[in-house]
Design brief:
The complex is a heterodimer of chains A (187) and B (1048). Chain A has 187 residues and is of the alpha+beta class. In chain A, 29% of the residues lie in helices and 24% in strands. Chain B is elongated. Classes of the chains: A alpha+beta (187), B alpha+beta (1048).
Chain lengths: 187, 1048
């Protein structure tokens, strides 16, 4: 092999190695950067607030000053007045991020189960909780970040929950600790 | 020293902007703030993706980089990566050295400071390498130990599971056995899981009525306090939380974990809701009942109580309940004290603290067989919960006692390496409300390291301050939270009591620290004589002088008998006492002077723990307390129900604390307060030093109480060792309980007992034939037989009320029920009274339900309370009115249960037809099923299309009526055409401010799912039976609602 060929091969090899190193560096940097989460187009929102994406400032800019703030575990729950005189809308903030919205639904909202099923379809993900003895269960659309507490016989809805889209098990773990997949008794 | 202030440039500056000497900023009090920062920026076991600012105490860093630079400046250690735990640990250790003054450090690389270096020299590098290697070894050892602990826990869990599988068969076998003579009341060394399971099974359906021996505490608020009450009611929980936190002096904040403040704030906030609608103080009630919620458990403290023995003939059962009640009471007391103390900084009014959080008074309760007015029913579920929680606490102490005694080896230094890796924790497949917020990094994320830092910092401080002595003079403040202890010739001053009241020191010490308050209570006594463990304690006081004699007799410490004589006098709030203690004939002396001067500016809150202990002492059973707390069962090897995942951080914390004990030797045990103090002295000086130690810690107590205490301790010292070591750990566990929401729910009051089976009288009424009958069977002749049996005592003064009611579509009317007279009004045991009569029913009884009820009232010899029991029989003819309610074939014909339910159906369909009509509008049929299996304490269970009724829900006409009325309330909410009523209920203004409640504990506070059905049931029960009080009067908003939407 001539010297010229050797130089070409060595040069090519060096170029290949350099290319690989540069590529690896770029890749590594990309890996280091934690991309900002962007809301899924299909994620349910409440007044443009999207759990997982919106932060505390977004909440206060959108809804104003909460009427109450309370601490639950290491999270802050902001309460905003709803049309129900007994229950406020609740927004849970964790590490400055909006984590969960619990919105009270009243008859003036004219939202019922039929309307929800028209929008999202029916769901088989059901959890039973403190209102199940009155026929009101928690119906979940995990991948849409949406759930509601409602009565399938009357179509009445009490609450809508908005959360970061996730899977059913994580939803149970994170948001529905006091709910069960089995209907348990109450007197 | 000027107060340091936060700056944005990651350093700490004083008020003049000058960099402080770091030794003045990093102190034993503030070093824990830095530990929190380590947890914040470098959480162990967690990938840290958030980089949020950190602020605590005097420290503030914007981000991880700033903190990293700060650490480098102070320690010279560069934390390249959070996974580099060795460097993190070394940096933490370096901060401790600085806090202790071992290392003089100046900020920003001042000349001569180690910080001026940017790299380590060879020797330092070598040293670091050696330390790192040492940590590695510790880590391995710890992991092995942790694995051993976890393996044991899993093994026990398996044993328990196996036991559960076998329990029923064993229980059946037990029932068949001839009852053995009752064993003496003993507290077994070890209760097997099988036994516990069996005992819990035997509790099914049992409940205990307890009543206060004395009046429950009340508080009358001043006009100013009422104003404050109203003003506070408008604060948010967050504002209250901030108010409390900001009111606590900076130097005290470490003592109050965030969740303690949160709990206090929550209670103040919730308490405020009650008065939030009041416009002025004139609306506020004049008087508030302010009981300490755990007081009812005092009824269980004495396992030899005669009434308790009647309710629970099984002595072992009583023993289990008793030994569970004691630590539980203490646990709840400690929780109570901590929350009260936190709240006191904000409220500055003990009256208000009492109203919001419950008074600092233990009301002694006693058990009673029957319901008593003003009594409380502690249901089987509550008792089970009590036993299980008691077991958890005791097992927890036991496990950690083993750590102390060396049964489980502990590394000699370090604490973070003791963290149990996630991979070694048992997996909990299903999250529950109590574990859902637990995750890698620990309970509440990151408090553990800071807590440990604080604990170790104090341990070191106390180690430096305390020295074993045999003869000492103590100057103690009897009422203030601070005392000064001067020991030996060294004149080491230590704010002992201020440390004692820290949350992580023993309960006993906490009680003692405020014992001076008790002294004030008894200072007026001129004489006081008590017996304790059979030994007399004499206290005599004349005017300003008092004299006390305690003769411990054969109570021994270290094998030597102990006697103590004390003489002294009181002058104003000061007392001066000379104590002489004799051990085996040799006189040792310990004198102390007590004064109440120097009371802190804040109101000093007495500890309720003291009073709990006082109640126990009042039983004359200190030894019971001591033994049951620390005796054989404390050394119980079984780890039956320790929720390892839940207590992971506590598990981590404990070896760390104990490691300190081992590391720093006996004096270092002072971190345990009395525990360490006593242990260290036992280990090093035997009796004299122990006595001196006890004198020191009890010097804040009232004289008589103090002596009782000392004597008691003398008797149980061998056992106490375990307790005093375990109690700090218990408190850690209590914190876990508080934090996890797994706290023990105190029993709820109840005022309705008519449904309970009478223990003295049995009444059975039968119909023959029992039917059901067709209309074509009319006319009918039915023979009724009524049998009244004296179950365990002769019945005297027996009277019988006999009634018959027929229900038809047209309404109800009375029917034939002949009067019944018992000869001589007496029924003896073994000779039941039987009454038989015939009734003829003609065609006027078409489509009817005939219900015959018998109510027997009798007296029991030597019992002033009369007893009442009921029985019923019913027959159906044709199709009586029942709307959509259908009894299925699970109800045995002729059974009392069926009669009770038929009567309930008749009453609701006859008298509340509008209600039933609304319910039935959504259902063609609601099937009513009798489920003999039962389900805990549940009376019924609504499944939508059918309802289960359990035996305890239909065992009397009242119960059946209540259960049916309540369950139909659920049907009303559930039904397609009526669930709007439930929606309206949830939207009714003020509905949450009322809690219709009589005996169903879930409705003690307003319950979103249960309160509406309960209001309906209580209305029907009161209207028909006159029980449980008026809904209209007690809960007017509910009354208006149900009148408008349910019964209209």
């Amino acid at each position: 092999m001539s010297l010229k060929k050797k130089i070409i091969i060595i040069g090519f090899t060096i170029l290949l190695i350099l290319t690989f190193i540069v590529f690896y560096q770029i890749k590594s940097r990309q890996n280091l950067v934690t991309p900002s989460p962007t809301p899924s187009q299909s994620q349910a929102r409440f007044k443009d607030l999207a759990p997982g994406t919106s932060n505390l400032d977004d909440v206060k800019n959108t809804l104003g000053v909460p009427i109450n703030e309370r601490l639950e575990e290491n999270k802050t729950v902001l309460e905003y007045k709803s049309d129900n005189p007994n229950f406020n809308n609740e927004l849970t903030i964790e590490s400055n991020k909006l984590e969960l919205i619990k919105r009270q639904v009243t008859s003036s909202d004219t939202i019922d189960i039929n309307k929800i099923e028209d929008e999202y379809g029916a769901t088989e993900k059901v959890l039973y909780g403190p209102l199940s003895s009155n026929g009101f269960n928690l119906y979940i659309y995990p991948d849409r970040g949406f759930a509601y507490i409602g009565n399938p016989y009357s179509g009445i809805i009490f609450e809508i929950w908005y959360f970061t889209p996730t899977d059913f098990n994580i939803f149970k773990y994170k948001y529905a600790g006091n709910y069960s997949e089995k209907y348990l008794p109450s007197q | 020293m000027a107060t340091p202030t936060k700056t944005q440039d990651s350093t700490v500056r004083n008020a003049f902007g000058k960099i402080e000497n770091i030794n003045q900023v990093i102190t034993l009090d503030t070093v824990s703030d830095i530990y929190f920062a380590f947890d914040h920026f470098y959480p162990e076991g967690t990938i840290y993706k958030f980089d949020t600012p950190y602020s605590k105490g005097n420290f503030y860093w914007n981000n991880r980089q700033e903190f990293k630079e700060y650490v480098f400046k102070v320690t010279g250690l560069d934390i390249r990566d959070g996974s580099d735990r060795k460097v993190v640990k070394l940096a933490q250790a370096r901060f401790f050295d600085i806090a202790e003054g071992k290392t003089e450090v100046k900020m920003e690389g001042a000349e001569g400071s180690p910080l001026s270096k940017t790299s380590l020299n060879k020797e330092e590098s070598e040293m670091l390498r050696e330390k790192a290697q040492e940590y590695d070894e510790q880590l391995k050892a710890t992991e092995q130990n942790a694995k051993k602990v976890i393996d044991e826990a899993i093994k026990q869990k398996q044993v328990l599971a196996q036991a559960q599988a076998d329990a029923k068969a064993k229980a059946d076998a037990q029932i068949k056995k001839v009852a053995a003579p009752e064993p003496p009341v003993t507290l077994p060394d070890q209760t097997s899981p099988e036994k516990i399971h069996q005992l819990l099974n035997n509790l099914e359906g049992k409940s205990v009525w307890v009543k206060p021996i004395d009046e429950l505490p009340k508080r009358v608020l001043s006009p100013q306090e009422k104003k404050t009450l109203i003003a506070n009611s408008h604060l948010t929980q967050k504002q209250i939380f901030d108010g409390i936190r900001n009111s606590i002096p900076v130097t005290e904040r470490d003592r109050f974990p965030e969740y303690v403040i949160t709990n206090a704030a929550t209670k103040i906030h919730e308490g405020g809701q009650i008065v939030s609608s009041y416009d002025s103080e004139a609306d506020v009630p004049q008087e508030y009942l302010t009981p300490f919620v755990a007081s009812p458990y005092t009824a269980f403290l004495n396992p030899k109580n005669e009434v308790l023995a009647k309710i629970f003939p099984d002595a072992e059962m009583r023993g289990e309940i008793s030994k569970a009640a004691q630590p539980t009471l203490l646990a709840l007391s400690q929780e109570h004290d901590m929350e009260r103390e936190a709240a006191s900084y904000l409220l500055q009014s003990e009256n208000l603290i009492d109203v919001y959080l419950g008074a600092n008074e233990v009301t002694a309760f006693e058990p009673s067989i029957e319901r008593q007015e003003g009594g409380i029913e502690i249901e089987a579920g509550d008792i089970k919960n009590l036993i299980q929680k008691g077991q958890e606490i005791n097992s927890f102490i036991s496990q950690n006692t083993k750590l102390v005694t060396g049964e489980i080896e502990i590394p000699s230094t370090g604490f973070s390496p003791l963290r149990v890796p996630e991979s070694q924790l048992p997996t909990l497949s299903t999250p529950t409300p109590t574990n859902k917020h637990l995750f890698v990094g620990g309970i509440e994320g990151q408090k553990t390291q800071g807590d440990l830092a604080r604990m170790i910092a104090r341990e070191r401080a106390r180690r430096a301050a305390l020295k074993p002595i045999e003869l000492g003079i103590t100057v103690a403040d009897g009422t203030a939270p601070i005392s000064f202890q001067i020991e030996g010739a060294g004149a080491t001053t230590n704010s002992l009591f201020s440390v004692m009241t820290k949350s992580e020191v023993p309960i006993l010490l906490t009680s003692i620290a405020v014992g001076g308050y008790a002294a004030a209570d008894i200072a007026g006594l001129t004489s006081y004589v008590n017996t304790f463990g059979g030994k007399p304690i004499l206290y005599m006081g004349v005017g300003k002088f008092n004299f006390s004699v305690v003769n411990a007799g054969n109570m021994t410490i270290g094998g030597a008998p102990l006697s103590r004589f004390t003489a002294g006098f009181q002058l104003g709030s000061k007392s001066f006492n000379l104590e002489i203690t004799k051990k085996a004939g040799k006189v040792i002396s310990s004198a102390f002077i007590k004064t109440s001067e120097g009371v802190a500016t804040r109101t000093v809150l007495p500890s309720i723990v003291t009073k709990v202990i006082g109640v126990v002492a009042g039983l004359g059973s200190w030894a019971t307390l001591g033994l049951s707390l620390v005796g054989g069962w404390l050394l119980d090897k079984a780890i039956k129900k320790i929720p390892w995942r839940k207590i992971r951080d506590v598990v981590i914390a404990i070896p760390a604390a104990i490691a300190g004990f081992i590391l720093f030797g006996a004096p270092g045990a002072a971190i345990f307060g009395l525990g360490g103090f006593g242990v260290s002295r036992i280990l090093t000086g035997g009796l004299p030093s122990l006595q001196s130690g006890l004198t020191s810690v009890t010097s804040g107590m009232g004289s008589a109480f103090r002596f009782a205490f000392i004597t008691a301790l003398s008797g149980i010292v061998p056992y106490l060792i375990g307790t005093i070591i375990g109690l700090p750990l218990l408190i850690a566990f209590i914190l876990f309980i508080i934090n996890s929401g797994a706290y023990i729910v105190p029993p709820n009051p109840a005022f309705f007992a008519q449904s309970q089976q009478n223990p003295y009288i049995d009444v059975v009424k039968t119909a023959n034939p029992a039917g059901p009958f067709n209309n074509s069977d009319l006319p009918l002749k039915i023979t009724y037989t009524i049998t009244v049996t004296a179950k365990k005592s002769e019945l005297i003064g027996v009277t019988v009320k006999h009634e018959c009611t027929v229900y038809q579509k047209s309404g109800k009317q009375a029917c034939q029920a002949p009067p019944i007279v018992v000869p001589d009004g007496t029924i003896k045991v073994g000779s039941p009274f039987v009454f038989t009569y015939d009734a003829i029913y003609n065609t006027t009884y078409t489509d009817s339900l005939v219900i015959n009820t018998v109510e027997v009232t009798a007296n029991i010899p030597n019992d002033p309370n009369s007893q009442t029991a009921t029985g019923a029989a019913s027959i159906t003819i044709g199709t009586p009115p029942s709307a959509c309610l259908k009894l299925d074939n699970t109800w045995a014909n002729g059974s009392t249960y069926k009669s009770n339910m038929e009567a309930a159906i008749a009453i609701i369909s006859g008298e509340y037809s509008t209600y039933l009509g609304k319910v039935c509008s959504s259902y063609p049929e609601i099937r009513l099923t009798y489920n003999p299996a039962g389900y805990g304490n549940f009376y019924g269970w609504n499944h939508g299309t059918y309802i289960d009724f359990f035996p305890i829900g239909v065992d009397s006409p009242n119960d059946a009526l209540y259960t049916l009325a309540h369950e139909l309330g659920h049907s009303l909410a559930w039904g397609a055409s009526t669930s709007f009523i439930y929606d309206t209920y949830r939207n009714t203004a003020g509905i949450r401010s009322e809690a219709p409640y009589c005996f169903y504990s879930a409705t003690k506070n307003w319950d979103e799912g249960e309160s509406m059905p309960e209001a309906i049931a209580l209305y029907i029960l009161n209207t028909s039976k006159g029980t449980c009080g008026s809904v209209q009067t007690s809960w007017p908003i509910h009354y208006r609602f149900i009148m408008k939407y349910v019964f209209n």
